[in-house]
Structures are given as C-alpha cells and as structure tokens.
Amino acid sequence: MSEKHLQTGDALPPFGGKLRLFAMRFCPYAERSVLVLNAKNIPYDLVFINLDQKPEWIFNFSPRGAVPALEYEQGKGIFDSNVINVYLDEKYPEVPLQAADPLRRAQDKLIVENFSAAQSAYYTAAFNAQALQPSHLENYHKGLELLQKELETRGTKFLHGDQAGLVDYTLWPFLERFEALPLLGKSEYAIDKSKYVILLTYMESMKQVPAVKTYYLSADMHAKFTESRVKGDPNYNMLDSSAEVCCFRPRKKKE
C-alpha cells in the first residue's frame, strides 16, 4: 500500500467496488476507523490525502474536507470517526465491537468523553507548546489516572473485555501518540512506569492486537512528523520515501 498523500489537482483514484476510507496517515481520528475496519475484517481501500493541500473531490465525501470519510457506495460518503465506526459496527455485525449491555455501552462512551481533556492537552503540548498552561499537564495526567482506574476496576485485559473493542480502538490512537511527547522535549508528559503499571501493561497488549499491529507507528515516527508539522512543512509522505526515518533525535527541553 502506498503511503502517498493525494493533494490539490490529483485525480480521485478509480472506485474499486469496496468500502473506501479517506484518511491521513498521522491523524488519530482517521486511525480509529482504520482499526475498526481491520478488527472487523472488512475489505476496504485506503486513500490518504494532504490536509494542507486538499484534493477538490474530498469535499464530495466530507463537507469540511476533514478525515476520516467513508465512501460506502460509489460517490456517497459519511464522515466523523464516531459516526463511521458505529455505522460499521451495526452494518457488519459479524464481529461486534460494542458491548451488548446498553449500560456498558453508555459507560464506554463516558470513558471516551472523560479522556477528551487529556487528548486536548496532548495537542497543545505537541503542536502549540507556547500556549501550555499548568492545567494542561493536570488534565493530561488526570485522564491517564482515570483510564488506569477503569482498567483496574474492570479487571479485564482490554476495556471491552478479553478482546479489544470499539472503546479501545477509539482511545488507542491517542495513547500511541502520547509516547512521542518525551521525544518532543515534554518529559513531564511521560507515562511513568512506576505510576502507570496497569495502563502500560494495557498499552503493550494493544500493540499486539492484529488490527493495531498492522497500522502502528512508533513514538519516533510520530515525533518526526510532529516536528515537521510544527516547522510549517508537514512531511505527509515520509513513510512513502526512502529517507531515513528511524533515527529521530529527541528535542531538548527548554529551561
């Protein structure tokens, strides 16, 4: 699969008769839908787009040009990862990813909602460090603590149970990226091994889930892309080139 991101002026690839997901390789929201498609073993095509120079046709599937967008029939699309993923789970029920119990489904949604402040803190720390406030760090670690407490309370390998489910695939893309923050000079955002034993065990288990393993990128990769974006020249196609991408040098923390 090519990692090339199509941009303004590029033609829409021919429709192949399968579901087609429009994404950006480093977007956590798009990754959510990739993981769900993988977990449900649904055949699909994946098209990456440049979010700074968007191809004109993406607006036919997503009015704001945002990803992910899912082409469920030729020329017809829906967008927003939450909308897409619930649709996929209900349309293709053979591998259910949501809890059967309505209360547990509600609780799973609350976990995701309560984690949103940690996600917001990540974005500020990674892409807008000059705007960081003490509350960002507090919200970040509060989110991690709440997630670890939930894992401890449930006592299962994954939040969904013995197998990863929609709640896990919804949270995972951000946890994957959190590990890049220390490489970006934000050591205070590290997920400490002594404090987050249960959470880190969970994260290692998630990395081995087949749906995740085939799409996972290392902290080094995420840090390298983040650096390019912060500099104003996001290297969308860094995985589709022969350039060396495995030796990212951590950014020195400013005193």
TrEMBL record:
Query: Any keyword Transit peptide?
Result: no
The record's GO molecular-function terms, alphabetically, read: glutathione dehydrogenase (ascorbate) activity; glutathione transferase activity
**Domain spans labelled GST N-terminal:** 17-96
Q: Which GO terms describe its cellular component?
A: cytoplasm
Give residue ranges for domain GST C-terminal: 101-230
Q: What GO biological process terms does the UniProt entry carry, in alphabetical order?
A: glutathione metabolic process
Protein family membership: Belongs to the GST superfamily. Omega family.
Q: What is this protein called?
A: Glutathione S-transferase
Species assigned in the record: Plutella xylostella
